[in-house]
Amino acid sequence: MARCAVALIGISGCAFLGDFDGGDFTYQDIPVAKSSATAGDGHTVTLKGNPLPLAGLSIKVGDPLRTVTVAKGDLTLLNLADTKGKVRIISVVPSLDTTVCEQQTHYLSEKNHGLDQSVELITVSVDTPFAQSRFAKKAKIDNVTFLSDFRGGAFGKAYGLLVKDPHLLARTVMVVDQNNVVRYLQVTPELAQMPDMEAAFQAARSLVQP
Q: CB 3.0 to 4.6 Å from 69: which of 77, 175, 179, 180, for a disulfide?
């Protein structure tokens, strides 16, 4: 347990945000990853340069969404593949209780250039649904759907994004088209870096424009 806590604190050198009280968010100068790691067994991401193995089936551009359930805010289960019919940006974060994850989620919500009018914005983390709801309320984010993988990491395993030890999800952004096909995918090689959200927005925009 102590090892997990130390690792969480180490993600981007961030402190826990238990005293976060909402209001205007201040963006920090966090490095943006320009490359992508490979998801799945046999591959790794790093935390402050230290390799962390990934677990699960690899996912890549061109693959369909897989059948896996995640928990909504009311604890009911949702099969992510059942959200088809709309372009989706799925932002995956290790924990909303860290600075990079917080900024990634605010960026998705606030800097999507109006995509939230036609694209569904989704954040997945291992935080409990209660913690996700509390975060969204305090952060005043109401245009992002929060889904939780706290029930054994089924989402992480299905997409090769489960960091085995500590039990977290690899930082990822993916864009999925109306037919549940992954059209853009970036797994940040270093957990302390932001994904390239602008590239994801561009990919999503190309799918909703005539």
A: 77
Structure tokens at 111: 């800097």
pTM of the full structure: 0.89
- Return mean pLDDT, the chain: 90
Angle at which helices 129-139 and 99-110 cross, to 10°: 60
Which fold does the domain 2-15+35-208 belong to in CATH? Answer: Glutaredoxin (3.40.30)
Q: Residue 152 in 3-state DSSP?
A: coil
Domain parsing of the chain, residue ranges? 2-15+35-208
* Element spanning 183, H or E: strand 182-187
Of the listed 101, 161, 182, 187, which one is catalytic? 101
Render pLDDT for 36-65 as a digit per residue (tens, 0 to 9).
Answer: 999 999 999 999 999 999 999 999 999 999
Nearest Cα neighbor of 89 from 188, 185, 210 is 185
Band of the pLDDT at 209, cuts 50, 70, 90?
confident
Buried b (16+ CB within 10 A) or exposed e, 69-101: bbbbeeeeeeebeebeeebbbbbbbbbbbbbbb
Asked if residue 123 lies in contact with residue 93, where contact means CB atoms within 8 angstroms, the answer is yes
